[in-house]
Design goal:
homodimer, alpha/beta, 3-stranded antiparallel beta sheet, 9 strands
């Protein structure tokens, strides 16, 4: 009755004379790149077998993601960001209403990932956020990525659990993961009233951080009239506005998303942001000088993308100012950029 | 209609004049530690924001695990290990009977993780295993870890999807993951006739590699009579035998596991390995000079562990040779060692 269950190794907390940080952080200082040096450092690896070490990192990498996701979901980083001083694990467990042993293990795993730091005061370990956590994980931080992480934990992690089947079938696995047919992608992503704003807030997290940089790199200033196809809550439109106050941006999305965006997200500068409801595969598109398709094409088959790009091309061509030119910009999830002059 | 789905970025294959390896491998040579430099290197990260880069690595780390798991499950490494020459993605897809587009993406992701290598021959990309894959991932390799990876993919990955709930409740989540009550741990691990040998083969993968080193480090030679409690298929017992031919090892496990071990796994040297069926929490234990509890305690609550260690202590004490001493050795999943002299 032995089990193969593998766990992130969190070394037992040493006596006060043995610094907990000396015990938990054993990676080479200054060398980034966990999980190699962080959560998995304590695993037993035969000397000289670097390939085996790499394999162990890969096969346990999902545990690193889950430590991050669980600590976000339980509110660890919010609690520690708001607490006036470092807290012991029992206090964290009590305030979050979760198990004390589980909390102790989770906090130590977070320390090993450099999300928390620990020190011993009066023979008791107390925890506080690292700068990484207070900047990107606490809900109240302007750079918080918490909603994107929760979305990734609740949707993406489950879908990726079926990667072998996805490769076998050549299509997504929303049916296996959520019981929703694979053609109805957004029925899965927006599968409940609760999930929909979660997904949109997740996108906002990313655009809030990266949007201004992406927009500045693109420089849409020669194009007074911009359309963000599938623009969700208008997060990229906001970034456009803030850098180029002369722009007019139309956010085009399905009616449900537009209604939710108006309900949940405010647009103080909204004179220059307008919404248009429709299905970009079949309804009439706006006719702007510049179309943006950001993080949209990766959702669809090649055939559907060709159809959509053809429609976008026509819309830009029709909308182009006389003597000017129009452009369709597609942004993939990883920032790869395609610029297609349309006229 | 944009989606937050994040994907491992596999850069598009360049023209033949642009070496694919130059395109795919962009990490710093000689610096191990993906995913930082491998699967995730192409993600867009604001310059200077190392914390953000780390966060992206953590939040996407599960994708790295899944690329490895999916390629193992589909037989990519077995096919390439057996093929007389490097194969194109279409040939791999055809021989495995899986989608061609999915295969192309999976193979390129494996290249970025250094599991495969690619080169362009006659304007066509062809793939072959790296040494890492042929050593540890091909089914026929004596060091193969394939079964352990498949077990991790099918059981551990799913359980860890409920980590937040596990911390909240302070107990495992087999009920949510598999519909099996959390007290019946091994009903979940051995939840079908197919899963049981899979789990045991997974343990064998690890012991085959690490067992001889662990046994050599322990040096059980002063203890002629050894009992491996929860010893499953006898993999650690075999390692013991091969190093210390004078030993007698009794493998103690539940009847189902013992029956399966006898059915599935051979013991050519079995004169000195015997099996004993029982429940180590309540049935009479053997009375050896040395008890080993390897990868067993992490499965149980502190209370159950105390009970089990008490029983083990008594068994060793009874079994000790006059004038000698007995020892209970517990090995955790990460190789941490506790030696408890029992008499």
């Amino acid at each position: 009755m032995a089990s193969p269950s593998a766990l992130l190794w969190v070394p037992p907390r040493g006596p006060p004379s043995l610094s907990p940080s000396g015990c938990v952080h054993r990676g080479m200082p200054g060398r980034l790149g966990p999980p190699s040096q962080a959560g998995l450092e304590g695993r037993w690896v035969p000397p000289g077998e670097e390939g085996y070490r790499l394999l162990k990192e890969y096969s346990s990498a999902f545990m690193v993601s889950q430590v991050l996701f669980a600590a976000c979901e339980l509110g660890v980083f919010d609690l520690l960001a708001e607490a006036p001083e470092a807290l012991g694990s029992a206090a964290v467990a009590a305030r979050l209403g979760v198990s004390s042993r589980g909390t102790e293990l989770l906090l130590d795993a977070c320390v090993s990932l450099k999300l928390l730091q620990v020190e011993v005061r009066r023979e008791k370990a107390v925890y506080e956020s690292t700068e990484l956590a207070s900047t990107y994980l606490a809900r109240a931080s302007p750079k918080s990525q918490r909603d994107m992480l929760l979305y990734t934990a609740r949707t993406t992690y489950l879908c990726w659990g079926h990667l072998a089947a996805a490769v076998r079938d050549g299509k997504n696995q929303y049916l296996k993961a959520f019981g929703v047919p694979s053609e109805e992608l957004f029925t899965a992503i927006y599968r409940s009233q609760g999930e929909r704003p979660q997904a949109v807030r997740g996108l906002q997290d990313e655009w809030r951080l990266g949007g201004p940089r992406v927009v500045a790199a693109l420089d849409p200033s020669p194009f007074p009239c911009v359309c963000d196809l599938g623009g969700g809550s208008g997060a990229l439109a906001k970034a456009c506005m803030s850098l180029y106050p002369g722009s007019q941006v139309t956010v085009f999305d399905i009616p449900d998303v537009v209604q939710m965006a108006k309900r949940h997200f405010s647009f103080p500068e909204d004179e220059r942001i307008s919404f248009c409801e429709g299905d970009f595969f079949k309804d009439r598109l706006p006719e702007p000088d510049l179309c943006i398709l950001a993080r949209a094409l990766h959702d669809w088959t090649g055939e559907k993308c060709s159809h959509l790009l053809g429609r976008t091309y026509q819309a830009c061509k029709t909308g182009a100012l006389p003597g000017s030119y129009s452009v369709c910009i597609t942004l993939s999830v990883c920032g790869v950029l395609h610029l297609e002059p349309c006229s």
